[in-house]
Sequence to fold (375 residues):
Amino acid sequence: MPRIQALILASSALALSATPAFAQDTRPAADPQFATFTPSDTPNNDGIDYTIWNEAMSNIVISMGPSLRETAGPPSQGFGTRRQYGHVSRYRLEGTRIMFTFLDSDVIASFTEYRQDLERTADIVDIQALSRNEQLAYWINLHNVAMIEQIAMAWPVRQPRRMEVNGVPLDDARFITVEGISLSPRDIREKIVFANWRDPRVIYGFWRGEIGGPSIQREAFNADNVGRLLDRGARDFVNSLRGTQKRGDTLEVSELFEEVAPFYFSNFEGDVRAHIAQFANDDTRAILDGTTQINANVNEYDIADLAGGVREPTYSNITSSDGTSYSFRLPRSMAQLLAQREQKFQRIIRQGRTGTVTFSNIELPGDPDDKGEIE
Fold:
């Protein structure tokens, strides 16, 4: 992987996603300690190029495909012996995964270097004076780079939320420094982004390292694609088992919605239902229509990698479609997970559920000048 660095250039980027209407703002008061990061009312046209991080994401992130709203079921015989290796989560065929197993020390060091480059970027450009989309992309990328870096350094680890950095839980450890201010991943989410952006779609940009959370995207966020990627993340999450389920007449939803409720869902049941409906497919709409109450009790804290956060001592050879056997050291549990993933994709193809159309760079009559800014 080449040295990861932040490149500064001129840009007039806008993401092409309509800004929704919002009710009266009832979020918690902003923390004065982080007031310096409040977006400017007079943004400039500067921008940040994340091309190198985009390349990294395309190489280390693997998609498990859209949810079929079916549990993965128990692992088959031989998946492990006396000790269980690999993922056993019922959600293991949903979301995306980071290939931590294959990251060597040089690649991990490049993550640290890139995180530090992003921190120094704030000394070169005025982050608060960028467009709102440009700022949002910066904070999401910095947060996710930092999470990947720390988990990669600690891997193998079963559950990232149990990790500590200098004795402090990962999410609350202030190992990130921007403009001389120490920040934790939680600070970036709650004290900066949630405090200054009213659109709940922003919650889907932040990767927490867990299967049960929003997916990490296979491309870096930037001012052009931030709206599109947040929409994609929202659709993926609310239409998955880890986002919404039905038990009797109860709509069971992810604990994530309860966590962000002070910022986005003050009238919890009504606001969450309206939010889910905005991105729901037919199956999820049926769940909304078939339930009368809501409970935020869905979770999965296992690491969102391919190996279940464990180094497996046994490996399999990989066989190509023409029968050729390759000597490639792939853990057996991972080989089985990837085989299940392939079977899932074949089912999707047989069911005719493939195909995504994305529109961009389209100007429509009557569009406002600030069209696409995430508010």
Observations:
- Residues 132-154 form the longest helix (23 residues).
- Residues 1-21, 357-371 have pLDDT under 50 and may be disordered.
- Residues 65 and 344 are 8 Å apart (CA to CA).
- The longest strand covers residues 325-331.
